[in-house]
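Curious: explain these tokens?
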Amino acid sequence: MALFEHFFPSRPQSTIFVTASAIGYYLERMFEQAEHSIVIVSPYIKISLRIRSILMDKINDGIKVTVVHRESFDYDGMNIKTFKRKNLHAKCFFTDKAVLIGSMNLYDYSQINNDEMGIFLTKKDNLELYENIEKEVGRLCNSFSFEGRQNAKLQYANKSALQTGKRYARNELNRYFSFIDDHIGGIKQTRRGNIVLFYYSKSKYNNEERDGILYYVGQNTGSEVQMLKYGNKALYDCFTSGKGRIFLFRDDVFQGEFFVCMKPFQKDGKWVFPLKPEVSRTGRVDPAGECTKEA
């Protein structure tokens, strides 16, 4: 118990110096406490059974796991994004709550046999430093060879792309999308950060179409005035960041890919998202599923 308290003091500290004997403990703890995302930056990777188990549990909970690496590594069975950088030398482990940056690769041999050191810090206690590290981690993920999506292409090479005008059963769509949960609502988020929308003609939600725009009514968040969270937040973020792809099904028939064409707004306590087909923005229609095209 004393050893655990030495590694994880009850009183928050701005930064904590760690050596090889403690790095493994901090890695496990920060990965287990992640609520939205985990980014691993490590040139050389050999994931231990313990870390693999933790990451698999987080992936199954809908946590996004991204790996920036230099040499290929084994991640069979793990739904992760991988970015390959030939000049990578940095080592950093980053979550939505904390950062560990230092000398160690995510290599099980290094954790046991090497002399390593690093610094652990939390977002709460070191916001400015955390945000600076976040920017650099983001840069490493924005200039890349996207190995993970290429592998996904190969994996699904024998599967047909989604066809505009074709009806699909919900369970059939698991062939194309990896949803983060099992709820049957109209807004479904995928593990790749995209969104699938379902629109039913006889629904109580009064979706309107005017002048080539579909005014899609957002998710019911359980209050009279609907909150900007869950699916509503995901759709709103598509407008503000320009990231994420939106696939629309009307009465289970695939309509194509859409985008939020104007700022979402509230009407009668409900969030409304103006949508247009991607063809109106790009001059092309792409009926392919998210697993058959790089975003």
